[in-house]
Protein backbone atom coordinates (compact mmCIF):
# COMPACT_ATOMS: atom_id res chain seq x y z
CA UNK A 1 0.00 0.00 0.00
CA UNK A 2 1.26 3.47 -0.82
CA UNK A 3 1.05 4.96 2.64
CA UNK A 4 2.52 8.28 1.58
CA UNK A 5 -0.39 9.08 -0.69
CA UNK A 6 -2.77 9.75 2.18
CA UNK A 7 -2.52 9.25 5.87
CA UNK A 8 -6.31 8.96 6.04
CA UNK A 9 -6.10 5.87 3.86
CA UNK A 10 -3.94 3.92 6.28
CA UNK A 11 -7.07 2.30 7.62
CA UNK A 12 -7.53 -1.20 6.17
CA UNK A 13 -8.98 -0.23 2.80
CA UNK A 14 -7.31 -3.16 1.11
CA UNK A 15 -9.52 -6.04 2.12
CA UNK A 16 -8.31 -8.47 -0.52
CA UNK A 17 -4.56 -8.89 -0.21
CA UNK A 18 -2.50 -7.57 -3.13
CA UNK A 19 -1.02 -10.93 -4.18
CA UNK A 20 -4.55 -12.43 -4.27
CA UNK A 21 -5.84 -9.56 -6.38
CA UNK A 22 -2.82 -9.84 -8.69
CA UNK A 23 -3.49 -13.55 -9.09
CA UNK A 24 -7.18 -12.94 -9.78
CA UNK A 25 -6.41 -10.28 -12.39
CA UNK A 26 -3.95 -12.63 -14.05
CA UNK A 27 -6.19 -15.73 -14.17
CA UNK A 28 -9.29 -13.80 -15.15
CA UNK A 29 -7.44 -12.07 -18.00
CA UNK A 30 -6.76 -15.47 -19.57
CA UNK A 31 -10.46 -16.37 -19.48
CA UNK A 32 -11.49 -12.97 -20.82
CA UNK A 33 -9.05 -13.26 -23.69
CA UNK A 34 -10.35 -16.74 -24.47
CA UNK A 35 -13.86 -15.30 -24.68
CA UNK A 36 -12.89 -12.46 -27.00
CA UNK A 37 -10.15 -13.70 -29.29
CA UNK A 38 -12.43 -15.85 -31.47
CA UNK A 39 -14.89 -13.02 -31.98
CA UNK A 40 -12.17 -10.56 -32.94
CA UNK A 41 -10.48 -13.07 -35.29
CA UNK A 42 -13.80 -13.77 -37.00
CA UNK A 43 -15.20 -10.27 -37.33
CA UNK A 44 -12.37 -7.75 -37.10
CA UNK A 45 -9.02 -9.56 -37.56
CA UNK A 46 -7.20 -6.32 -38.40
CA UNK A 47 -7.51 -5.33 -34.73
CA UNK A 48 -5.09 -8.13 -33.80
CA UNK A 49 -2.42 -6.78 -36.14
CA UNK A 50 -2.74 -3.00 -35.98
CA UNK A 51 0.11 -1.47 -33.93
CA UNK A 52 1.23 -4.93 -32.94
CA UNK A 53 -2.13 -5.72 -31.36
CA UNK A 54 -1.89 -2.77 -28.96
CA UNK A 55 -5.55 -1.82 -29.33
CA UNK A 56 -6.64 -5.41 -28.80
CA UNK A 57 -4.57 -5.57 -25.60
CA UNK A 58 -6.19 -2.38 -24.37
CA UNK A 59 -9.60 -3.90 -25.04
CA UNK A 60 -8.70 -7.05 -23.11
CA UNK A 61 -7.56 -4.92 -20.16
CA UNK A 62 -10.85 -3.01 -20.13
CA UNK A 63 -12.82 -6.27 -20.34
CA UNK A 64 -10.77 -7.70 -17.51
CA UNK A 65 -11.56 -4.62 -15.42
CA UNK A 66 -15.27 -5.08 -16.19
CA UNK A 67 -15.01 -8.74 -15.23
CA UNK A 68 -13.50 -7.90 -11.85
CA UNK A 69 -16.25 -5.37 -11.19
CA UNK A 70 -18.78 -7.92 -12.47
CA UNK A 71 -17.39 -10.57 -10.14
CA UNK A 72 -17.71 -8.18 -7.20
CA UNK A 73 -21.30 -7.18 -8.11
CA UNK A 74 -22.38 -10.82 -8.49
CA UNK A 75 -20.91 -11.75 -5.12
CA UNK A 76 -22.45 -8.71 -3.43
CA UNK A 77 -25.86 -9.95 -4.60
CA UNK A 78 -25.02 -13.48 -3.43
CA UNK A 79 -24.58 -15.11 -6.83
CA UNK A 80 -21.60 -17.09 -8.11
CA UNK A 81 -19.56 -15.60 -10.91
CA UNK A 82 -19.90 -18.53 -13.27
CA UNK A 83 -18.73 -18.89 -16.89
CA UNK A 84 -21.90 -17.19 -18.18
CA UNK A 85 -21.40 -14.13 -16.02
CA UNK A 86 -17.77 -13.93 -17.08
CA UNK A 87 -18.91 -14.16 -20.70
CA UNK A 88 -21.46 -11.35 -20.17
CA UNK A 89 -18.81 -9.16 -18.49
CA UNK A 90 -16.37 -9.78 -21.34
CA UNK A 91 -18.98 -8.87 -23.94
CA UNK A 92 -20.00 -5.76 -22.03
CA UNK A 93 -16.38 -4.62 -21.71
CA UNK A 94 -15.82 -5.11 -25.44
CA UNK A 95 -19.01 -3.17 -26.24
CA UNK A 96 -17.86 -0.27 -24.08
CA UNK A 97 -14.39 -0.30 -25.60
CA UNK A 98 -15.61 -0.30 -29.20
CA UNK A 99 -18.42 2.18 -28.48
CA UNK A 100 -15.92 4.54 -26.84
CA UNK A 101 -13.58 4.18 -29.82
CA UNK A 102 -16.36 5.46 -32.12
CA UNK A 103 -16.75 8.44 -29.79
CA UNK A 104 -13.08 9.16 -29.19
CA UNK A 105 -10.88 8.01 -32.05
CA UNK A 106 -12.34 9.23 -35.33
CA UNK A 107 -13.07 12.91 -34.73
CA UNK A 108 -16.06 14.89 -33.49
CA UNK A 109 -18.08 14.55 -36.69
CA UNK A 110 -17.74 10.75 -36.63
CA UNK A 111 -18.66 10.72 -32.93
CA UNK A 112 -21.88 12.68 -33.57
CA UNK A 113 -22.73 10.51 -36.55
CA UNK A 114 -22.23 7.33 -34.51
CA UNK A 115 -24.46 8.70 -31.75
CA UNK A 116 -27.21 9.24 -34.32
CA UNK A 117 -26.95 5.69 -35.57
CA UNK A 118 -26.77 4.27 -32.04
CA UNK A 119 -29.89 6.23 -31.12
CA UNK A 120 -31.67 4.53 -34.03
CA UNK A 121 -30.48 1.19 -32.65
CA UNK A 122 -31.97 1.76 -29.21
CA UNK A 123 -35.15 3.43 -30.44
CA UNK A 124 -35.91 1.12 -33.39
CA UNK A 125 -33.41 -1.73 -33.38
CA UNK A 126 -31.76 -0.87 -36.69
CA UNK A 127 -28.03 -0.31 -37.05
CA UNK A 128 -26.26 0.40 -40.30
CA UNK A 129 -22.99 -1.55 -40.38
CA UNK A 130 -20.32 0.14 -42.47
CA UNK A 131 -17.06 -1.59 -41.65
CA UNK A 132 -15.45 -4.50 -39.80
CA UNK A 133 -15.13 -2.62 -36.52
CA UNK A 134 -18.85 -1.81 -36.54
CA UNK A 135 -19.65 -5.39 -37.48
CA UNK A 136 -17.70 -6.64 -34.46
CA UNK A 137 -19.44 -4.09 -32.25
CA UNK A 138 -22.88 -5.09 -33.50
CA UNK A 139 -22.23 -8.84 -33.18
CA UNK A 140 -20.96 -8.39 -29.61
CA UNK A 141 -23.91 -6.16 -28.73
CA UNK A 142 -26.45 -8.61 -30.16
CA UNK A 143 -24.81 -11.49 -28.27
CA UNK A 144 -24.90 -9.45 -25.08
CA UNK A 145 -28.57 -8.55 -25.57
CA UNK A 146 -29.37 -12.20 -26.19
CA UNK A 147 -28.03 -13.17 -22.77
CA UNK A 148 -30.74 -11.43 -20.75
CA UNK A 149 -34.21 -9.97 -21.06
CA UNK A 150 -33.08 -6.74 -22.61
CA UNK A 151 -36.61 -5.35 -22.23
CA UNK A 152 -36.37 -5.45 -18.43
CA UNK A 153 -37.58 -2.05 -17.24
CA UNK A 154 -34.46 -1.12 -15.23
CA UNK A 155 -32.06 -2.43 -17.85
CA UNK A 156 -33.73 -0.47 -20.63
CA UNK A 157 -33.44 2.72 -18.60
CA UNK A 158 -29.78 2.07 -17.82
CA UNK A 159 -28.97 1.51 -21.50
CA UNK A 160 -30.74 4.72 -22.51
CA UNK A 161 -29.22 6.61 -19.55
CA UNK A 162 -25.76 5.53 -20.68
CA UNK A 163 -26.46 6.66 -24.23
CA UNK A 164 -27.77 10.07 -23.10
CA UNK A 165 -24.79 10.71 -20.86
CA UNK A 166 -22.39 9.74 -23.67
CA UNK A 167 -24.22 12.18 -25.91
CA UNK A 168 -23.96 14.91 -23.29
CA UNK A 169 -20.28 14.12 -22.83
CA UNK A 170 -19.60 14.54 -26.56
CA UNK A 171 -21.57 17.81 -26.62
CA UNK A 172 -19.67 19.22 -23.63
CA UNK A 173 -16.32 17.84 -24.76
CA UNK A 174 -14.92 20.98 -26.27
CA UNK A 175 -17.25 23.62 -24.94
CA UNK A 176 -19.88 23.73 -22.28
CA UNK A 177 -23.16 24.80 -23.91
CA UNK A 178 -23.75 27.73 -21.61
CA UNK A 179 -20.11 28.46 -20.83
CA UNK A 180 -20.39 32.21 -21.47
CA UNK A 181 -23.30 32.66 -19.09
CA UNK A 182 -22.62 30.10 -16.37
CA UNK A 183 -20.26 30.64 -13.44
CA UNK A 184 -17.22 28.40 -13.30
CA UNK A 185 -18.50 26.59 -10.23
CA UNK A 186 -21.65 25.59 -12.12
CA UNK A 187 -19.58 24.49 -15.12
CA UNK A 188 -17.59 22.17 -12.87
CA UNK A 189 -20.81 20.77 -11.43
CA UNK A 190 -22.06 20.00 -14.95
CA UNK A 191 -18.82 18.26 -15.89
CA UNK A 192 -18.78 16.29 -12.67
CA UNK A 193 -22.39 15.17 -13.06
CA UNK A 194 -21.73 14.14 -16.65
CA UNK A 195 -18.79 11.91 -15.61
CA UNK A 196 -20.78 10.56 -12.66
CA UNK A 197 -23.73 9.54 -14.80
CA UNK A 198 -21.76 8.12 -17.71
CA UNK A 199 -20.00 5.52 -15.62
CA UNK A 200 -22.86 5.23 -13.14
CA UNK A 201 -25.25 4.09 -15.87
CA UNK A 202 -22.56 1.86 -17.38
CA UNK A 203 -21.99 -0.06 -14.13
CA UNK A 204 -25.77 -0.29 -13.72
CA UNK A 205 -26.08 -1.93 -17.15
CA UNK A 206 -23.33 -4.39 -16.21
CA UNK A 207 -24.79 -5.25 -12.82
CA UNK A 208 -28.31 -5.72 -14.26
CA UNK A 209 -26.93 -7.94 -16.99
CA UNK A 210 -25.32 -10.06 -14.27
CA UNK A 211 -27.98 -9.87 -11.57
CA UNK A 212 -31.37 -8.68 -12.89
CA UNK A 213 -32.94 -8.65 -9.41
CA UNK A 214 -30.33 -6.53 -7.65
CA UNK A 215 -32.00 -4.55 -4.80
CA UNK A 216 -32.46 -0.82 -5.38
CA UNK A 217 -30.40 0.15 -2.33
CA UNK A 218 -27.36 -1.66 -3.73
CA UNK A 219 -27.84 -0.11 -7.15
CA UNK A 220 -27.32 3.35 -5.77
CA UNK A 221 -24.05 2.39 -4.07
CA UNK A 222 -22.76 0.53 -7.11
CA UNK A 223 -23.68 3.61 -9.17
CA UNK A 224 -21.39 5.63 -6.91
CA UNK A 225 -18.59 3.08 -7.44
CA UNK A 226 -19.06 3.44 -11.20
CA UNK A 227 -18.84 7.21 -10.92
CA UNK A 228 -15.62 6.93 -8.95
CA UNK A 229 -14.14 4.75 -11.70
CA UNK A 230 -14.89 7.49 -14.25
CA UNK A 231 -13.20 10.17 -12.17
CA UNK A 232 -10.17 7.93 -11.62
CA UNK A 233 -10.07 7.19 -15.37
CA UNK A 234 -10.30 10.87 -16.26
CA UNK A 235 -7.47 11.72 -13.89
CA UNK A 236 -5.29 9.04 -15.51
CA UNK A 237 -6.16 10.39 -18.98
CA UNK A 238 -5.82 14.03 -17.93
CA UNK A 239 -2.86 14.92 -20.18
CA UNK A 240 -4.25 13.05 -23.16
CA UNK A 241 -7.63 14.80 -22.80
CA UNK A 242 -6.02 18.19 -22.39
CA UNK A 243 -3.96 17.68 -25.53
CA UNK A 244 -7.16 17.06 -27.47
CA UNK A 245 -8.98 19.96 -25.75
CA UNK A 246 -11.47 17.65 -24.10
CA UNK A 247 -13.02 19.07 -20.99
CA UNK A 248 -13.49 16.81 -18.00
CA UNK A 249 -14.15 17.59 -14.37
CA UNK A 250 -10.76 16.12 -13.45
CA UNK A 251 -8.77 18.25 -15.90
CA UNK A 252 -10.65 21.44 -15.02
CA UNK A 253 -10.80 21.30 -11.22
CA UNK A 254 -8.13 23.35 -9.47
CA UNK A 255 -6.57 20.63 -7.30
CA UNK A 256 -7.44 17.33 -9.01
CA UNK A 257 -5.46 15.08 -6.66
CA UNK A 258 -7.25 16.49 -3.65
CA UNK A 259 -10.64 16.41 -5.37
CA UNK A 260 -10.16 12.80 -6.39
CA UNK A 261 -9.06 11.80 -2.91
CA UNK A 262 -12.19 13.35 -1.43
CA UNK A 263 -14.44 11.54 -3.92
CA UNK A 264 -12.53 8.31 -3.34
CA UNK A 265 -12.82 8.44 0.44
CA UNK A 266 -16.51 9.34 0.39
CA UNK A 267 -17.31 6.55 -2.02
CA UNK A 268 -15.36 3.93 -0.09
CA UNK A 269 -17.17 4.98 3.09
CA UNK A 270 -20.52 4.53 1.30
CA UNK A 271 -19.51 1.11 0.02
CA UNK A 272 -18.46 -0.01 3.49
CA UNK A 273 -21.60 1.27 5.09
CA UNK A 274 -24.20 0.37 2.49
CA UNK A 275 -23.15 -2.96 1.06
CA UNK A 276 -23.49 -6.25 2.92
CA UNK A 277 -20.30 -7.77 4.30
CA UNK A 278 -19.18 -10.09 1.56
CA UNK A 279 -16.22 -11.17 -0.53
CA UNK A 280 -17.74 -9.08 -3.33
CA UNK A 281 -17.68 -5.89 -1.28
CA UNK A 282 -14.08 -6.53 -0.23
CA UNK A 283 -13.06 -7.19 -3.80
CA UNK A 284 -14.77 -4.05 -5.11
CA UNK A 285 -13.06 -1.88 -2.49
CA UNK A 286 -9.66 -3.47 -3.12
CA UNK A 287 -10.07 -3.12 -6.86
CA UNK A 288 -11.01 0.56 -6.54
CA UNK A 289 -8.05 1.24 -4.30
CA UNK A 290 -5.68 -0.44 -6.74
CA UNK A 291 -7.24 1.42 -9.65
CA UNK A 292 -6.98 4.72 -7.82
CA UNK A 293 -3.35 4.13 -6.94
CA UNK A 294 -2.29 3.02 -10.46
CA UNK A 295 -4.08 5.96 -12.13
CA UNK A 296 -2.43 8.46 -9.80
CA UNK A 297 0.83 6.95 -10.97
CA UNK A 298 -0.32 6.99 -14.60
CA UNK A 299 -1.14 10.70 -14.29
CA UNK A 300 2.40 11.41 -13.10
CA UNK A 301 4.06 9.18 -15.71
CA UNK A 302 2.01 10.43 -18.65
CA UNK A 303 2.91 14.02 -17.87
CA UNK A 304 6.50 13.29 -18.88
CA UNK A 305 5.65 10.98 -21.78
CA UNK A 306 3.90 13.50 -23.99
CA UNK A 307 0.63 13.67 -25.82
CA UNK A 308 1.12 10.70 -28.12
CA UNK A 309 1.60 8.15 -25.39
CA UNK A 310 -0.88 5.28 -25.54
CA UNK A 311 0.54 2.91 -22.98
CA UNK A 312 -1.47 -0.15 -22.00
CA UNK A 313 -2.16 0.01 -18.28
CA UNK A 314 -3.34 -2.98 -16.34
CA UNK B 1 -11.95 -18.86 -42.36
CA UNK B 2 -13.78 -19.42 -39.05
CA UNK B 3 -17.45 -20.38 -39.53
CA UNK B 4 -20.03 -17.77 -38.60
CA UNK B 5 -22.21 -18.48 -35.57
CA UNK B 6 -25.87 -18.96 -36.68
CA UNK B 7 -27.05 -16.34 -34.16
CA UNK B 8 -24.55 -13.78 -35.50
CA UNK B 9 -25.60 -14.63 -39.03
CA UNK B 10 -29.26 -14.04 -38.19
CA UNK B 11 -28.51 -10.77 -36.40
CA UNK B 12 -26.41 -9.47 -39.31
CA UNK B 13 -28.95 -10.62 -41.91
CA UNK B 14 -31.72 -8.76 -40.08
CA UNK B 15 -29.79 -5.52 -40.46
CA UNK B 16 -29.02 -6.30 -44.09
CA UNK B 17 -32.75 -6.66 -44.81
CA UNK B 18 -33.24 -2.94 -44.24
CA UNK B 19 -30.88 -2.13 -47.09
CA UNK B 20 -32.52 -4.73 -49.34
CA UNK B 21 -35.86 -2.93 -49.14
CA UNK B 22 -37.74 -6.06 -48.08
CA UNK B 23 -38.73 -4.69 -44.71
CA UNK B 24 -39.97 -1.44 -43.36
CA UNK B 25 -37.25 0.34 -41.40
CA UNK B 26 -39.73 2.94 -40.17
CA UNK B 27 -41.23 0.27 -37.96
CA UNK B 28 -39.23 -0.67 -34.88
CA UNK B 29 -37.60 -4.07 -34.74
CA UNK B 30 -36.80 -3.65 -31.05
CA UNK B 31 -37.37 -0.54 -28.96
CA UNK B 32 -35.17 -0.43 -25.90
CA UNK B 33 -35.90 3.21 -25.22
CA UNK B 34 -38.24 3.35 -22.22
CA UNK B 35 -38.64 7.11 -21.82
CA UNK B 36 -42.25 7.16 -23.02
CA UNK B 37 -43.44 4.52 -20.54
CA UNK B 38 -41.25 5.83 -17.71
CA UNK B 39 -43.30 9.03 -17.52
CA UNK B 40 -46.26 7.06 -16.15
CA UNK B 41 -44.46 5.15 -13.41
CA UNK B 42 -45.64 6.01 -9.88
CA UNK B 43 -42.11 6.24 -8.43
CA UNK B 44 -38.69 7.58 -9.38
CA UNK B 45 -35.49 6.22 -7.87
CA UNK B 46 -32.62 8.66 -7.49
CA UNK B 47 -29.48 6.64 -8.15
CA UNK B 48 -27.22 9.37 -6.77
CA UNK B 49 -28.88 9.70 -3.39
CA UNK B 50 -30.37 6.22 -3.20
CA UNK B 51 -33.86 7.58 -2.51
CA UNK B 52 -37.24 6.52 -3.86
CA UNK B 53 -39.69 9.36 -4.54
CA UNK B 54 -43.23 9.67 -5.74
CA UNK B 55 -43.16 10.86 -9.33
CA UNK B 56 -42.56 14.61 -9.42
CA UNK B 57 -41.65 14.95 -5.72
CA UNK B 58 -40.31 18.51 -5.21
CA UNK B 59 -37.44 17.24 -3.06
CA UNK B 60 -35.83 15.38 -5.98
CA UNK B 61 -32.52 17.26 -6.45
CA UNK B 62 -32.14 18.93 -9.80
CA UNK B 63 -28.62 17.52 -10.03
CA UNK B 64 -30.07 14.00 -10.07
CA UNK B 65 -32.32 14.56 -13.09
CA UNK B 66 -30.18 12.41 -15.40
CA UNK B 67 -29.89 9.65 -12.82
CA UNK B 68 -33.60 8.98 -12.13
CA UNK B 69 -35.06 5.55 -12.84
CA UNK B 70 -38.78 4.94 -13.18
CA UNK B 71 -39.99 2.29 -10.74
CA UNK B 72 -43.39 0.59 -10.84
CA UNK B 73 -43.09 -1.65 -7.82
CA UNK B 74 -40.23 -1.23 -5.33
CA UNK B 75 -41.33 -4.38 -3.48
CA UNK B 76 -40.07 -5.08 0.01
CA UNK B 77 -37.37 -2.44 -0.13
CA UNK B 78 -39.72 0.50 -0.01
CA UNK B 79 -39.12 1.40 3.64
CA UNK B 80 -35.35 1.27 3.24
CA UNK B 81 -35.19 3.79 0.42
CA UNK B 82 -38.39 5.89 0.75
CA UNK B 83 -38.12 9.69 0.64
CA UNK B 84 -39.04 11.18 4.01
CA UNK B 85 -40.76 14.15 2.34
CA UNK B 86 -43.14 12.54 -0.14
CA UNK B 87 -43.36 9.17 1.67
CA UNK B 88 -44.19 6.80 -1.17
CA UNK B 89 -46.34 3.91 -0.02
CA UNK B 90 -46.75 0.32 -1.11
CA UNK B 91 -50.41 0.91 -1.98
CA UNK B 92 -49.37 3.10 -4.90
CA UNK B 93 -47.17 0.43 -6.42
CA UNK B 94 -48.35 -0.75 -9.80
CA UNK B 95 -47.28 -3.61 -11.87
CA UNK B 96 -47.51 -3.21 -15.62
CA UNK B 97 -51.19 -4.02 -15.71
CA UNK B 98 -51.35 -4.93 -19.36
CA UNK B 99 -52.74 -8.15 -20.71
CA UNK B 100 -49.56 -10.07 -21.50
CA UNK B 101 -51.37 -12.55 -23.78
CA UNK B 102 -52.54 -9.64 -25.86
CA UNK B 103 -48.98 -8.26 -25.94
CA UNK B 104 -47.69 -11.55 -27.30
CA UNK B 105 -50.43 -11.56 -29.94
CA UNK B 106 -49.59 -7.99 -30.94
CA UNK B 107 -45.91 -8.96 -31.05
CA UNK B 108 -46.71 -11.83 -33.38
CA UNK B 109 -48.89 -9.62 -35.57
CA UNK B 110 -46.20 -6.96 -35.78
CA UNK B 111 -43.65 -9.54 -36.92
CA UNK B 112 -45.96 -10.90 -39.61
CA UNK B 113 -46.73 -7.34 -40.63
CA UNK B 114 -43.14 -6.16 -40.68
CA UNK B 115 -41.56 -9.22 -42.21
CA UNK B 116 -44.56 -10.27 -44.33
CA UNK B 117 -42.83 -9.96 -47.69
CA UNK B 118 -39.71 -11.76 -46.42
CA UNK B 119 -41.81 -14.58 -44.94
CA UNK B 120 -43.80 -14.96 -48.16
CA UNK B 121 -40.64 -15.09 -50.27
CA UNK B 122 -38.98 -17.55 -47.92
CA UNK B 123 -42.15 -19.66 -47.82
CA UNK B 124 -42.32 -19.92 -51.61
CA UNK B 125 -38.63 -20.87 -51.81
CA UNK B 126 -38.99 -23.39 -49.02
CA UNK B 127 -42.10 -25.00 -50.50
CA UNK B 128 -40.31 -25.74 -53.79
CA UNK B 129 -37.10 -26.98 -52.10
CA UNK B 130 -36.38 -30.68 -51.51
CA UNK B 131 -36.73 -30.11 -47.76
CA UNK B 132 -40.09 -28.40 -48.20
CA UNK B 133 -41.43 -31.15 -50.44
CA UNK B 134 -40.30 -33.78 -47.92
CA UNK B 135 -42.05 -31.86 -45.16
CA UNK B 136 -45.25 -31.73 -47.27
CA UNK B 137 -45.13 -35.53 -47.67
CA UNK B 138 -44.55 -36.01 -43.94
CA UNK B 139 -47.41 -33.65 -43.08
CA UNK B 140 -49.74 -35.50 -45.47
CA UNK B 141 -48.92 -38.83 -43.92
CA UNK B 142 -49.20 -37.38 -40.41
CA UNK B 143 -52.57 -35.86 -41.31
CA UNK B 144 -53.86 -39.25 -42.49
CA UNK B 145 -53.11 -40.78 -39.09
CA UNK B 146 -55.15 -38.21 -37.15
CA UNK B 147 -58.65 -38.98 -36.00
CA UNK B 148 -61.53 -36.62 -36.81
CA UNK B 149 -61.31 -34.63 -33.57
CA UNK B 150 -57.57 -34.04 -34.02
CA UNK B 151 -58.14 -33.02 -37.65
CA UNK B 152 -60.79 -30.54 -36.60
CA UNK B 153 -58.49 -29.05 -33.95
CA UNK B 154 -55.68 -28.66 -36.48
CA UNK B 155 -58.03 -27.09 -39.01
CA UNK B 156 -59.24 -24.54 -36.45
CA UNK B 157 -55.62 -23.59 -35.66
CA UNK B 158 -54.69 -23.24 -39.33
CA UNK B 159 -57.86 -21.29 -40.08
CA UNK B 160 -57.08 -18.93 -37.19
CA UNK B 161 -53.58 -18.30 -38.49
CA UNK B 162 -54.91 -17.77 -41.99
CA UNK B 163 -57.55 -15.39 -40.63
CA UNK B 164 -54.91 -13.49 -38.70
CA UNK B 165 -52.68 -13.02 -41.74
CA UNK B 166 -55.69 -11.88 -43.82
CA UNK B 167 -56.70 -9.42 -41.08
CA UNK B 168 -53.18 -7.97 -41.02
CA UNK B 169 -53.13 -7.61 -44.81
CA UNK B 170 -56.53 -5.96 -44.82
CA UNK B 171 -55.50 -3.55 -42.03
CA UNK B 172 -52.39 -2.68 -44.04
CA UNK B 173 -54.45 -1.98 -47.17
CA UNK B 174 -56.84 0.19 -45.18
CA UNK B 175 -54.03 2.21 -43.63
CA UNK B 176 -52.39 2.88 -47.01
CA UNK B 177 -55.72 4.06 -48.45
CA UNK B 178 -56.08 6.45 -45.49
CA UNK B 179 -52.73 8.01 -46.28
CA UNK B 180 -50.74 6.36 -43.51
CA UNK B 181 -47.73 4.13 -44.24
CA UNK B 182 -47.72 2.36 -47.58
CA UNK B 183 -46.16 -1.10 -48.00
CA UNK B 184 -42.50 -1.36 -47.06
CA UNK B 185 -41.14 -2.15 -50.51
CA UNK B 186 -42.75 0.88 -52.11
CA UNK B 187 -41.50 3.23 -49.39
CA UNK B 188 -37.99 1.95 -49.67
CA UNK B 189 -38.00 2.73 -53.36
CA UNK B 190 -38.79 6.31 -52.44
CA UNK B 191 -35.91 6.40 -49.97
CA UNK B 192 -33.47 5.32 -52.66
CA UNK B 193 -34.68 8.09 -54.92
CA UNK B 194 -34.13 10.67 -52.21
CA UNK B 195 -30.59 9.43 -51.72
CA UNK B 196 -29.86 9.65 -55.43
CA UNK B 197 -31.14 13.19 -55.54
CA UNK B 198 -28.86 14.08 -52.70
Low-confidence runs of chain B (pLDDT<50, min 5 residues)? 179-198
Taken from the alpha-carbon principal axes, the silhouette of chain A is globular
Percent strand of chain B: 5-15%
Q: How is the biggest beta sheet of chain B arranged?
A: 3 strands, antiparallel
Q: Give the end-to-end Cα distance of chain B, rounded to a whole number of Å.
A: 38 Å
**Pattern of helices and strands of chain A:** HHHHHHHHHHHHH
Order of helices and strands of chain B: HHEEEHHHHHH
Largest sheet: number of strands, sense, barrel closure of chain A: none
Distance between the termini of chain A: 17 Å
* Overall radius of gyration of chain B: 25 Å
Q: Whole-number average pLDDT of chain A? A: 89
Describe this protein's structure.
The complex is a heterodimer of chains A (314) and B (198). Chain A has helices spanning 18-43, 46-49, 54-76, 83-104, 107-124, 132-147, 153-172, 184-210, 216-236, 238-243, 249-252, 256-274, 279-305. By secondary structure, chain A is mainly α. Chain B is 56% helix and 6% strand. Chain B has eight helices and three strands; from the N terminus they run H-H-E-E-E-H-H-H-H-H-H. In chain B, a hairpin with a 4-residue loop joins strand 1 and strand 2. In chain B, helix 5 packs across helix 6. Classes of the chains: A mainly alpha (314), B mainly alpha (198). Chain A binds chain B through residues 38, 41-43, 122-129, 135, 138-139, 142-143, 146, 150-151, 153-154, 156-161, 164-165, 168, 189, 193, 196-197, 200-201, 204, 215-217, 219-221, 223-224, 274, and chain B through 2, 4, 7-8, 11-12, 15, 18-19, 25, 27-35, 37-38, 45-50, 52, 63, 66-67, 69-72, 74, 77, 80-81, 96.
Amino acid sequence: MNRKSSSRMDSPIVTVSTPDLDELIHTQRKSVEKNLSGLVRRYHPAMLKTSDGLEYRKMVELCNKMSLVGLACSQIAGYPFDARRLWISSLFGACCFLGDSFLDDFGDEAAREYLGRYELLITRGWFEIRNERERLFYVILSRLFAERDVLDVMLRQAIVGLFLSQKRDVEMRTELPESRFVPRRRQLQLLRACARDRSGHAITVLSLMLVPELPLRYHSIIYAAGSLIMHIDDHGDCHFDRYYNRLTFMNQVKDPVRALRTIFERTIARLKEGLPESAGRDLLISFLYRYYRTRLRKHRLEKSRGAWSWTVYE
Amino acid sequence: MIAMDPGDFAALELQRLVGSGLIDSDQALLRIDYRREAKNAPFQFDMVKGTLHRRGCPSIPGASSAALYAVWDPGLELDLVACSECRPSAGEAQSMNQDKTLDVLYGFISLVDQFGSVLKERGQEYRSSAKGQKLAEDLNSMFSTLDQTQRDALRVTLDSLDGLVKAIESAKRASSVNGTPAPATARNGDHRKEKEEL
